[in-house]
Write a structure and sequence with these properties.
By secondary structure, the protein is mainly α. It has one domain: MFS general substrate transporter like domains (Growth Hormone, Chain: A, Up-down Bundle). It contains 18 helices and no strands. Helix 9 runs antiparallel to helix 16. The radius of gyration is 20 Å and the shape is globular.
Length: 418
């Protein structure tokens, strides 16, 4: 099914547009945090890692319960409440930034991302209820595209707005984006019943039952080869993402001389690459072996990241940064779409929320590792040297994944078969 045909379906189109606005709010919030840290502790990778830690911690505290709740409650309503709540919290960030102590700011950041823990699994679990099974690859490609558009638009707008007008105006824009997302989801008329429908609703709401369902999600992921492959891939990719976020941010600020504006420009180029990669995978990806594709993308991603590090960190070249970020986006984009499609195809609907929450926990744990390991390493050496090490790790992991499949006399895609 082509993108145009899928977008012709009103219910899915509303979800897709709403996700664009939601991602706009998410990425703009990231730019606000970068600007706050850049003002309070210029050039410090450790300070940036510290504030970003509070965006990750909710995954361990809230995500397991959020995933189980998604499987039992109305997913559409949960998305609306999450968006409205985030719009209120993001307005408080500029006020907390002026407080001498970090406790108010850290508290609001934690609360903001705790609410997001409910939104993401609800959106992922709602998607397959709005489209036919044969359209899942295209649907996931479009949802990934919405993330790319949101990231590109918000980082560019945020970079310019924060640099020129300051954090308070950016907070207003982010709040408006979340409210626009809520309005789009509110317009969805489809009412999918909860995947789990216990006979006794009062028991369903107890912590004991939620913990049991969380345990089911972990047991499923650890006992099925496809899920284990997905978790390993996500851990590697998100460890690298955490490292890149902290170290590349400071490297660009030091090499090119701005706090957020050049980061916003690079978000456009990487967003263009992500869009091209997502469109290409959505059009031709159904015929490709997904695990083999993922390993190949990791290999090329490492090469592109190394080229970006040399071009920006060593040569201080805008042009090299633009070209390499486009290429980097193109090879990263298929990975997320392929992983989401594998989960939708191989996991029962009643477990979708729990499995996506387990994935969220692994992703955030890996990002936390990447944030601190890279932040401390860059403080002791240099941002460019740290990024070079990350690029080598990605390339080696991708090459090893492809080689292991051949050595065992089978395609890496065999991992997909239970």
């Amino acid at each position: 099914m082509a993108f145009r045909q899928l977008l012709a379906q009103p219910e899915f189109r509303r979800l897709w547009i709403g996700q664009v606005f939601s991602n706009l709010g998410d990425r703009l919030t990231q730019m606000i945090l970068i600007a706050i840290v850049g003002t309070r502790a210029p050039g410090s990778t450790v300070a940036l890692a510290a504030i970003m830690t509070w965006t990750v911690v909710p995954a361990f505290v809230v995500s397991p319960f959020a995933g189980a709740a998604v499987d039992r409650w109305d997913r559409r309503r949960m998305m609306i409440v999450s968006d409205v709540a985030r719009s209120a919290v993001v307005l408080a960030l500029p006020l907390a930034a002026h407080w001498p102590a970090m406790v108010p700011l850290n508290t609001f950041v934690f609360l903001l991302f705790a609410i997001a823990c409910f939104f993401l699994p609800a959106r992922l679990a709602l998607t397959p209820t709005l489209v036919a099974p044969g359209a899942l690859v295209t649907a996931n490609s479009l949802m990934t595209t919405s993330g790319m558009i949101g990231a590109t638009t918000s980082m560019l707008v945020g970079g310019i707005v924060v640099e020129q007008l300051g954090v308070p105006v950016s907070g207003l824009v982010a709040a408006g984006a979340y409210l626009a997302s809520a309005a789009c989801v509110l317009a969805i008329r489809h009412r999918a019943p909860p995947a789990a429908n216990p006979k006794n609703p009062s028991i369903a709401g107890t912590g004991r039952l939620l913990l049991r369902e969380i345990r089911e999600g972990f047991q499923y992921c650890l006992s099925h080869p496809p899920a284990r492959f997905i978790l390993r891939t996500l851990f590697l990719l998100m460890t690298a993402s955490g490292a890149i976020f902290v170290v590349a941010t400071v490297m660009v600020q030091q090499a090119l001389g701005s706090v957020t504006q050049d980061l916003g420009v690079f978000s456009v180029t990487i967003g263009a690459g992500l869009f091209l990669g997502t469109v290409g995978y959505g059009r031709f990806g159904a015929r490709w072996d997904r695990p083999r594709l993922i390993c190949g993308c990791l290999l090329v991603c490492g090469v592109c990241l190394g080229a970006f590090t040399w071009g920006v960190g060593v040569r201080h070249s805008w042009l090299a940064g633009w070209v390499t970020t486009v290429l980097l986006g193109m090879v990263v984009a298929p990975v997320g779409t392929a992983i989401n499609t594998m989960v939708h195809e191989l996991v029962q609907d009643r477990l979708h929320g729990r499995v996506f929450s387990v994935m969220g926990i692994v992703m955030n744990a890996a990002m936390l590792v990447g944030l601190w390991v890279a932040g401390l390493a860059a403080a002791r050496s240099s941002p460019a040297a740290t990024l070079a090490a990350v690029s080598a790790l990605l390339a080696a992991a991708g090459a090893l994944g492809l080689a292991v499949g051949r050595v065992r006399g089978r395609a890496v895609g065999g991992i997909m078969r239970p």
